[in-house]
């Protein structure tokens, strides 16, 4: 028998012994109508700051309810100081990239506008909701922030020189296929758009001291595949998979 | 300027200098209606055996057309002798796993029925079409075979002892996070269903001499994420990404 999946909810409220947590309309519908939980049943809560908490349902109404925090079941586990920078693509694949980044463990997700990026807008709130849902699903206690769309050129101009950049350039030979396990510290991974980078962008990225150009094999990967592959290489060499 | 994406088509026909390749209804619609190609225009062809060929359109009709092979533009590049075994999940994520496996480079894709697999049927033809589409997209010259749904227990009973198994067990501690780069030869990767494996399945897999239990980090990955992560670890350590 497969046990019923553990219900984990992200909330905005502070979590501590005895704290009361109100349940709004969306969560009430999910908990009390869809999952049919009742007063006395338990769920797990996390808020990205206080770890994971067991909570008991103290009120279960159609449109609202309440929970009471009982005890911490897991401490806050921060991901490594790793950012994922990616150029937004088609909606479904952009959603996937955000979901995958949250599952794989990043601190920040940054949609970037490149010379060949078509979409000039993103729905930051929708992408942030995807990151929350992925954290609920994967057992994480942290939710990476999804930033607004930033111009790659601006990002590079203001780059913090202490943060290394793993640049996944699929069009030029000469990249390494493994990272240096001693190159610890803050990192960012940059995944290109489907149309690739412009020559100017490539030249600039290759010329920067903090850039490591990494190869992701002999086939051309879609952006969402490349994101997971790059995160795997990084996490297994420099991150919390070691 | 982004160049127009190169059109690559998988065909069943033999490819050699001067060979004529008929274009059926589906490809005619795509080439001549959607992409508006005309006689004299060029496309790339591959059939999984003869590498990639440049071909010229010699006839462009509404429902049929013809191509003539000009010259080979890339040799056949076989992937490593790696299988991906996975338990089918929801339709969209199953499609993604097949797409990702073809992109990442596997020889064979095997849907397996485990104790906790819900789906007792797969559409092998649809999954095979996804593998072909992924190969067209990623620049590959090989298309992995998608097998019919096989029972995991039967597969393990008939297992070829020369083929090592990378078992991604997310529920038990003690797995390694890196593979032995000297363990070359045929391999298979096994990704579990969302509900995990049964205790019997786990015990059996852990007890087998050819099994390497691998950890994919401290968070629980969805099956499609786990597939790409496992393929990345394998390809970068033992495969053609080195």
Report on the architecture of this protein.
The structure is a homodimer of 242-residue chains. Chain A is an alpha/beta fold and 242 residues long. Chain A has 2 domains: 8-74, Beta Barrel (Ribosomal Protein L25, Chain P), CATH 2.40.240; 82-238, SPOUT methyltransferase, trefoil knot domain (Alpha/beta knot, 3-Layer(aba) Sandwich), CATH 3.40.1280. Chain A has helices at residues 25-34, 91-104, 124-138, 152-157, 199-207, 223-238; strands at 8-10, 20-23, 42-46, 52-60, 65-74, 82-86, 108-113, 145-146, 150-151, 164-168, 187-191, 211-214. In chain A, the strands form 2 sheets. In chain A, strands 6, 7, 8, 9, 10, 11 and 12 form a 7-stranded parallel sheet that branches. Chain A has a 5-stranded mixed sheet with strand order 1-3-4-5-2. In chain A, a hairpin with a 4-residue loop joins strand 4 (52-60) and strand 5 (65-74). In chain A, helix 2 (91-104) packs across helix 3 and helix 2 (91-104) packs parallel to helix 6. The interface between A and B is large, with 37 and 37 residues.
């Amino acid at each position: 028998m497969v046990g019923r999946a553990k219900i984990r909810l992200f909330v905005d409220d502070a979590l501590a012994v005895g704290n009361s947590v109100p349940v709004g309309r969306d969560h009430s519908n999910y908990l009390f109508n869809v999952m049919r939980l009742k007063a006395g049943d338990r769920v797990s809560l996390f808020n990205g700051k206080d770890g994971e908490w067991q909570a008991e349902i103290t009120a279960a109404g159609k449109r609202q309810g309440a929970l009471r925090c009982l005890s911490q079941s897991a401490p806050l586990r921060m991901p490594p100081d790793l950012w994922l920078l990616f150029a937004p693509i088609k909606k479904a694949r952009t959603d996937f990239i955000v979901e995958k980044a949250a599952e794989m463990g990043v601190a920040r997700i940054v949609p970037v506008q490149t010379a060949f990026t078509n979409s000039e807008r993103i729905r930051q709130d929708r992408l942030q909701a995807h990151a929350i849902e992925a954290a609920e699903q994967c057992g994480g206690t942290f939710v990476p922030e999804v930033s607004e769309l930033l111009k790659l050129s601006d990002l590079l101009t203001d780059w913090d020189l202490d943060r290394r950049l793993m640049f996944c350039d699929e069009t030029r030979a000469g990249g390494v296929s493994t990272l240096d396990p001693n190159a610890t510290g803050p990192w960012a991974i940059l995944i290109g758009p489907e149309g690739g980078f412009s020559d100017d962008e490539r030249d600039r990225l290759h010329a920067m001291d903090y850039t490591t150009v990494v190869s992701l094999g002999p086939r051309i990967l879609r952006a969402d595949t490349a994101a997971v592959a790059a995160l795997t290489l990084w996490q297994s060499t420099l991150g919390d998979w070691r």
